[in-house]
Here is the input.
Amino acid sequence: MMDYRAPQLAVAFLSEHFSGNPGEALVLDVACGTGLIAKEMSALGFKHFEGVDGSQGMLDLAAQTGLYQHLSLALLGPEPLPAQPGVFDVVILVGALNAGSAPVGIVRELCKAAKPGGLICMIRANHRGELTAKYTESLKREIELMEGEGLWSPVGVKEVDKYMDYPHLDTKGAEDELVVTGTVYLYKKSIV
Ligand SMILES: C[S@@+](CC[C@H](N)C(=O)[O-])C[C@H]1O[C@@H](n2cnc3c(N)ncnc32)[C@H](O)[C@@H]1O
Here is the structure.
């Protein structure tokens, strides 16, 4: 049995740095899947969620949580992010920032959707392999380019243990194969 801990890790890091009133904040959950982020954040007092996902099946499950006021279907990459620019206090993307999911260019769209001073939180698994290495390199370039353009600034970037955990397995001696670490990125949109 595997524990997917990315939502908890991302939301914990975000909440350490979020200084507004969670009850009033508007949150955009990109690649929302079944709605784990809204579940995690609503436990901290967040109430206003919009979600986007490329799968109608996932959106149906997210709708069943009853936590999202608005859900949109969009395959990011081929389609633009369907979100009003400049209005979200928090934009969060968990579990889809990798080769084969959302293309690197999505980070610019996340920033566009945030309001000035809003937070953009992203977490991804540190998988191995050439595709991941290339994706990571181009993600780093895009993030730095956006910093250089004055669009956003880093609040914190940190490596997290156990993005995936296997609590029921004895992983001793097999950590290399079984333990997946992750990186969480938190950025603040510039006030222009
Ligand atoms: C691992 S799940 C993560 C779901 C949720 N964020 C969570 O952490 O529980 C990845 C989600 O990203 C969505 N996804 C992947 N690539 C996408 C794309 N290009 N555009 C929109 N959604 C995408 C999938 O449909 C899936 O719901």
Summary: Residues 58 and 70 are 14 Å apart (CA to CA). DSSP finds six helices and eight strands in the chain. The beta strands are 3-4, 26-30, 48-53, 68-73, 88-94, 114-125, 152-165, 180-189.
